[in-house]
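Hi P.,

Sorry for the delay on this. The queue was packed all week, but I finally got your sequence through. Input first:
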Amino acid sequence: MLVAALAMRPLVQGIGWWLSGVVFAAVLVAALLTVRRRAPGVRFVVLVAVLVAGSCAAAVLNDVHPLGWLDRQGALGEAMAAIRLNPAPLPQTDAIRLVVTIAIGWVAGVALFLAAIAPTVALAAVPALVVLIVPGVITGQPAPAVLVVLVGIAFLALLWLSVRPVQRAFPAAVVGALGLVVAVGLPAVVPLNAGWLSGVTGSLQSPIQPGRPGTLLELGQDLRQPNELEVLRYRSADGRPEYLKLADLDEFGTGDWVPTVTDASTSSTADRQRYALGVNPRLANRGDVTIRITGLSSNYLPVPAGAMSLTSQSTNLDLAQWRWMGDSNTVRSTGPTTQRGSTYEVYGASTSSGEYLDTIAESGLLGRADGRGFETPSRAQLKTDLALPKDLPEDIRSAAQRVAGSGSNDYEEARALEQWFRSDLFTYSETAPVEQGYDGDSMDVIDTFLKVREGYCVHFASSMAVMARTLGIPSRIAVGYRASGDRTEDGEYTVSNRQLHSWPELYIRGAGWVSFEPTPDSDAAAQPSTGSSATPAPADPETPLPAPGQTAPAEATPTPTASASAAPDATASGTGGGGSGPAGLVLGLVLALLVLAAPAVVRVTRRRRRLAAIRAGRAPAAHAWREVLDDVADHGFAPGFAPPGDAAAAARTARAVLGRLAPSMPVTVLPHLRAVVDAVDTERFAPDGAAAVDVGAVHRAVLEARIALDASVSRGRLARARLLPPSLLPSSAWSHEGRRSRRTA
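Then the structure:
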């Protein structure tokens, strides 16, 4: 158990908690050694007393009230709060160290109970296996192989010392191997990223990785995954859902959308504030959110489109290892990936198409506001965001000009493109592009999509971005998660892999980068309607976003509210993570029930096979003797020890074993056992062998022996005999020395 506890190192910082757990376990072992010759009841009382006293002593040593480990207002409450606020690895405070130490001690107490009091040594490894598995479920990473092997070796040694010599090697090897298979193979049988564990694990890969092309194609493959898994949760300051961006794809010169190559080593670290580049705060929506990773493994942090400052709220997210990426207002790591429990607060703003910008554009104020009060992208960056392949199909360019029509400015032309894609001319489909062979984001794919007019977000976003560039509007594609409609009771929005999304961002003079939503309404896309959700309320033009270094937003009147669903912060109706949750939970319960029922099923199968052999006359006495011996063992009886020097009593013949059983057996059972022993002698020594045995009488003796045994024990012992039959376990009780606990001085 102590070796297995080392698997918890990714959950708690330091090693002091383990050393104190070793001391606690040593005290428990010493206490049981002092009473090892006493009755099991005495040993159990001593074990519980030492567990309680040791827990109180550990509390005092950690400057906590003696019963603080049970007090939800004391150390236990502090530890639970730390677990909620600081996911793994937890800081090693006094409360955390105390709770973990006591947990190790009590689990070790369970192992000692199974090994030294029950005794069911073969089950003593169960607590250790649980300790090995739990950290892997929480972190998404299995326990180190060396720890699993060491625990297996320790278990084999325990079994080797707990059974008689002729039974040591094979059963110990079999049971030990099964334990190792459970510890190592359980994640394969029940994957750690299964839907019913999606809120606990962190193993779903982001569709975008640094330096990997084909991001949009990967996104499409992720969208078509059959399982729905939760990846993150967030809480917004205004209570409204937000689009969260992982990265921007802005280079299309080669015909494949990829992020601009940025040297992360020269970028500012994410723990430093910066201006939101290309965002006009007077026209933007405030985007203050607190995000908690629950099932995403990514080199990019999900953030609102106009992020400008991040604050880590967990110990497993060091923002010094994350960098701002060029001009995109996105954040990428220099090595680590997001971990389950990583929590951070993001402050910034973003601009979306909608009724408010429609009004501003109609008034002619957009062009006049260009570059005033906010930092604009460099000319080199805007040039990159206008680049097109030389062999761009002419159909794409002509379609853009036809749709844009007579728009008087860039924004009106972009809105015309957006509304065209959202019209009844296009259909959302995740399967049509694959079935018809035009999945992806290349020029030929876009050309085909504009003719077929069936596709998913990848096709709508890339087509609109390319068409905007043909009109002279800088564009890029944002990859992330669309707004969530699923909200928990405490106000958190849940986001699943089914909400993976891409949408175009166009640079509109005066407004900066504006998010558009060309993907049409559909159940699969889970896009909301196009009606306005609120009346726009322009912000005070003299109240910009706080400058880097400020710790709180400047006081201001409400900022403009995004128009509706066409804006990337509108409410979506898609489902959250855990779509396969009920099925996964049922599967887990079924597996657990199968494991619990396995001993009873094996015992019933063995008994039926033996009774069938008796009725068929195949060595009936031998099968009957084995069956009644198993029944006797299941009901808690065992032969006494053989007197020293009595070779007859020490013999393992049926009659010798019956002689050692007789003193401890109920008198109602003995006649049936004697009938079976007589049949064994007849079968072995009569001239006719098995043919001389009265099969009917032997069969009745076996059945009546169980009836008599059932009547002689308590209901609890009877239930154990059926559900957890001891006859399946190797035991020293049937050796010529009898049970070790019965030895006398």
